[in-house]
Amino acid sequence: MRARRFFALLRAELRRAVILLPPVLLAAALLLGAAGLLGWAEASGREGDAARRRLEIGLVGDFENDAWLRMGLNALETMDSSRYSLRFSRRGSEREALRALRAGELDAFAVIPEGFLAALEKGVETEPIRYVSGAGAQGLGTLLADEIVRAVARLLAGTENAIYAAQDYIASGVPGADPYAAGDALAEEYLSLILSREKLFTVELAGLSGGLGFAEYYLCALSLLALLFWGVACVPIFAGRDRELGRMLRASGLGAFAQTAAEYLAYMALMLGFYLLYAALLGLFGALRPEAAAALGLDRGALARLPLRGLLPAFALGAAQLALFGLGPGRLGALLLQFLAAAGMAYLSGCFYPASFFPSPLREIGAALPSGAALSWMGGPGPLPLLWLALYCAAALALRTWLRARD
């Protein structure tokens, strides 16, 4: 008998929710569309990001008449691993290079004096290479170029000192040996080590969080935003419930727990239906516009896989939103509470900026929130975020049950 009354209550909750569903879906679509436009603008703006392009370095020198200089530039452009991060462009004069630097076409330029490599080969002093970078506020490209130049300067000075020291030692301590031949052999050995220096280390792309790249991370963040702001859209249905109805249901044998369970199941039916529609639209976008998805750094697999990871966190976030409906005084209070909670959790957990941008105390707070556990699960499912989500779900449902019992 009690089970029959429970299912009757569940049907009534679902019927009431379906009647009010159109304006709720419209509000959710507007919120999600705004978030999607922000994500698209951020992803499109990264095309010219200094962190994603090669540094432009200008070179001023006598390339036409200096065969050694042409050979060295050719080695940098074709053999050295720096070609993946640096692009060298010849400039006819220092004035032309300076004009390009001021126009933002170059990150820096170097002026190689005439006969520099020939003098270096003979071991005679010559005018040093001059390096020029932008003054005032420096961008990421200029800072990286300056750091590279300092590293190269230290490398050249150490190499030159070692070669000359070896020649002096052989000339004075090894009779009959050719110090210049030994110096040439040592220079070739140094050059071989420099060109193969990438073998000394491995590169690991850590991504923004949990090994996810920019596009995948913000796909998870956008999916989490869809779940967080669903509570704002559902205020007309689940906020401001009549307390007298709850008392009548308790008198008929349906206690606070049964009422909470029926309300939670109805809420989750709507939430999961909306979220599955959202995930299907993303998958359809990847299938119909693969070139647009690729331009954003996403593939069809990511568009289908990553949003579906939000199904499990939806149960914890749905329970938390249901508890907030009971805490808000009336519909306006519930609306403000849902919006502030969604925006605050989204910000602290890294939906707008990655959590690594924040100081350590804020990162810890964001990770401890339900949204932090949800984003962690969506980035890489594991037992710890699963445990936190289960605890949050149980605690929120217990709070909602207590609020109903208190009415």
Which structural traits does this protein have?
single chain, 407 residues, mainly alpha, abc type-2 transporter like fold, 2 domains, four-stranded mixed β-sheet, 19 helices, 4 strands, 5% strand, elongated
Explain what you see:
With 407 residues, the chain is mostly helical. It has 2 domains: 2-46 and 212-406, no CATH class; 53-205, abc type-2 transporter like fold (3-Layer(aba) Sandwich), CATH 3.40.1710. 69% of the residues lie in helices and 5% in strands. The protein is built from 19 helices and 4 strands. Helix 12 crosses helix 19 (383-406). It starts with a helix and ends with a helix.
Specify the number of helices. Answer: 19
- Number of domains as seen in the coordinates: 2
How would you write the strand order of the largest sheet?
2-1-3-4
Mean pLDDT: 77
Q: Major beta sheet, specifics?
A: 4 strands, mixed
Instruction: Estimate percent helicity.
Output: 55-70%
Estimate the global geometry from the Cα principal axes: elongated
- N-to-C SSE series? HHEHEHEHEHHHHHHHHHHHHHH
Task: Give the distance, in angstroms, between the N- and C-terminal Cα atoms.
Answer: 25 Å
- State the secondary-structure class: mainly alpha
